[in-house]
Specification:
Radius of gyration: 22 Å
Number of domains: 1
Shape: globular
Helix content: 10-25%
Number of strands: 12
Order of helices and strands: HEEEEEEEEEEHEEH
Largest sheet: 12 strands, antiparallel
Amino acid sequence: MRTRFSLIALVFGLFAITAAPASADTIIDFGTGLAGAGGTVSFAGGTAPLVGQQIRIGVVNGFNTPINAGVAAVTGNTNPYGLLNFETGQYMGFWDSMYHFGSGGYFQIHGDVPAAGISGSDPGYSGFGDGALLLDGTFLGATISSGNVAFFLPTGVDGKNAALLNYYGVAPNTPFALSGYSLQVGPVPSDGSAFTSMALGSTDIANTAVPEPASLFLLGTGLSAIGTAIRRRRTQSAR
């Protein structure tokens, strides 16, 4: 009985250790803010990807960051806002009133963040314009709903501008998981056909820092220890 209680306590202890950071995830969240509607989202039909161009980004917000948590303005070199551009993977089909797209493609945000001392340009992607490269990632999948006001909801992984991570006190090269753009677009057809619509704005382009490997290693080691203890207990009972 004592051994069983110890195992249960160990299990709960491990879950407490690994679950605790989940309530305090580091999130760096981009949004349109007061930049207003602008840019387009389009689908050319067939197996083409969904393409977003020149979508306005006005703010970046740090949640649960070690320092400088809160909102900072995103501006541009020629405009008072930054820009989001993206291209998803290929079109997979239309069902559940949504267009579905596969993995691949890219998403990028360019802009200046004066509070973080970030300004300049990204020569490799000068066509996207307006400021330094703040975010660069690839999609794991994406959907866009249909209707007069539609929502683009993707998943993916990305990396952040080193100076931006430093501003928020986040370790360099920290990978992030894209948890979704609540990007509003309208209108979008309800039959899976091609379209070009205006980007109405985003209130949430949230990126969550991926858990550090040390936490995953700790969980794996703990579970291995539990398995070993259970096997020993069974062996002793058999004897």
